[in-house]
Amino acid sequence: MQWILAGVVILAYAFALRVVSRGVENYGISRAVKTYRIRYLVRTVNLLLSLALLLTLFVVLGVEYEQLALVASSIFAVVGVALFAQWSILSNITASFVIFFAFPYRVGDYVKVVDKDEDISGEIEDIALFHVIIRQGERMITYPNSMILQKSVIKLPRPAPEATEAESP
After folding, report:
1. DSSP code of residue 62
2. Based on CB atoms within 10 Å of each CB, which residue in 14, 63, 128, 148 is the most buried?
């Protein structure tokens, strides 16, 4: 009976993997998100679903809770220490998920990040895993994802093209 239930769990996992992956891909395409960002998010979601599958299979196949809890707590302790040491990386990855699903600005938009210390305005060139790249004239500004979610961002009108010397009278 356990093996039949394990087979059902694996089939449900395969179905969930396909549905969630397609859902994320379709959502990303509808928002004109770059392909590599969609692939990154799909891989991350697949990893989380795979971890859920392993946990579910352990329970279905009768692995004792004490053994499972010991292994899981050991893994979480090591991962927790590693992530605490690199908290900014974790916050930028988390912010990347938020930006993927809820950021109102897209590549090509002209924005101004309200920052009292620096004038950060220009065209969004790229939204990467850890940062947003803003082109300000000839300068390329790399702004961390976690910071751009903490600051006010103003969408600016597209600047008028500069007149060339051949066009001027």
Report:
1. T
2. 148
